[in-house]
Amino acid sequence: MLQRFLPIALLLLCAGGVVVAQSTGGEPPSPPDTTYTTEPDYPDTLVMEPDTYVDYEPDFIDGYAAGLYAGFTAEKSGLDLAKLDPQLTGTLVMYGGEYSVLIGDWYFNFSTVGSHMYDLGSTYDQFLLDYSGYGTGYETSFFKNIFTFRIGAEAGTGTLKLIKRTTHTDSTGHDLLEAYRREDFFYLRPSVSLGVPILQSPLASFLFRVAGGYMMAFGPENARDLNNFSYGAHLMFAVRMPSFNF
Q1: Entry pTM
Q2: What's the rounded Cα separation, in Å, for the pair 212 and 196?
Q3: pLDDT for 41-78, tens place per residue?
Q4: How many CB atoms lie within 10 A of CB 157?
Q5: Hey, is 98 helix, strand or coil?
Q6: Domain limits, the chain
């Protein structure tokens, strides 16, 4: 009996050795991969840091908050001199000055202009026409605040004086003079003007302003002879405080 099972036992033992030899043969297994790949964790809300840098471009200037103006004016009058005296001819040019204060969009000004002429040929000894007054109006700037536009009105008083020579002389031989016209009047003058800087800086500048207006005179009966349209140029020195638009 034992002899019968002995060959079978030896056969099973040999088969088991072959299986063990096959399982332990060849290259050893590589270690497990412990490297993990993870996606970045983004927050649901994107937070942006505020930009604290402010670039002060000229476009940020939104007009002018305040200003002071002073300068010289020259105007060509449209006055018909023949209405004053048929012996008068020519073109009348008047000179003067202007001072104004700008507060916000409104300005307040004082101006004076006049023309004084003496010894006009053999007929006239003196020609005088001048007027001065106070005004107010609206001012705005445009085209990147380079140009300024004004519209307003001015009221004040003036004087016209025409002194003529006569053919008579006094005891000393001097010509006797005649007060041909002597009139004091009130006037109202609406006007518009356009200004552009000649020399520009952040605060101070020289301005060249083109202006025109119509003067209406009131007073004596002949005061309406002084009604006329005049236009001219103003050369102004300005100190202005700009306002900013952020």
Answers
A1: 0.68
A2: 15
A3: 555 555 555 555 444 444 545 567 788 999 999 999 99
A4: 13
A5: strand
A6: 58-244
User: What is the per-residue pLDDT across 190-223, written as a single tens digit (0 to 9) for each?
Assistant: 999 999 988 777 677 899 999 999 999 998 888 8
- E strand or H helix that includes residue 142: strand 124-142
CATH class in words for 58-244: mainly beta
State the Cα–Cα distance between residues 195 and 211, nearest whole angstrom.
Answer: 9
Cα distances from 213 to residues 96, 98, 166, 189, in angstroms, run: 15, 15, 36, 6
Contact 119, 158 (CB under 8 A): no
Distances (CA, A) of 197 to 91, 103, 109, 175, 178: 29, 19, 19, 51, 47
Round to whole Å and give the CA distance between 153 and 227. Answer: 15
Spatial separation of the C-alpha atoms in residues 91 and 73, rounded to whole Å: 17
Quickly count: other Cβ atoms within 10 Å of residue 155's Cβ.
Answer: 14
27-58 b/e (C-beta count within 10 Å ≥ 16 → b): eeeeeeeeeeeeeeeeeeeeeeeeeeeeeeee
Degrees, nearest 5: CA angle 175-178-182 = 145
Of 48, 84, 106, residue with least CA distance to 217 = 84
Q: Is 83 left (phi over 0), alpha (psi -120 to 50) or beta?
A: alpha
